Amino acid sequence: MNEHKNILPNDISDEMLLLYSQGKLSAEDTRKVEEAMASSAFIGDAAEGLLEIDNKDGINDIVGDLNKQLKNITQQQKKRLKKHNPLDINWVIIAILVLTIVAVGGYLAVHMLSNK
Is residue 19 in some structural domain? Predict the structure, then answer.
């Protein structure tokens, strides 16, 4: 499941947060994580969520399940978007050409009638 990108800012990795929640970080890394938590609500919420989990050994399984669910949801949304494509660009071009021809034809007709 390493196909996801690190979405955490400030050079804080998900592994670092996991080790923080387990109390296995060095003092310097703990300080970095706590500073990042103070400066970013996202990191603070992530760390708080990890601290709330009782079974720290099962976190990797939980993350794997969440990634699978997220992947399924995004694939379903992509399929839904493909079914409901907006107007094809060719139809837009054809409509513009038809309207231009009608407008020019109308102008010419009015101009010819006004000259007679």
Answer: no
